[in-house]
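Input sequence (56 aa), recorded before submission:
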Amino acid sequence: MSLFLALIIVAIVLGIIGAVVDGLLYLLVIGIVLFVADLIYAALRMRRSFHRRPVR
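Predicted structure, token format:
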């Protein structure tokens, strides 16, 4: 969970810097890609942990 939150924070910071600073648009793109990858990672992790629980 801490890895997920750290990656979200890094993606947001890169996105803000890329949007504000002139000429650093590539940081915005990297931030967006990192954010999407982090969401996919979280979805796969949740789906995998959902299947591990025993049925009562």
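Checked by second reader. The mean pLDDT is 83.
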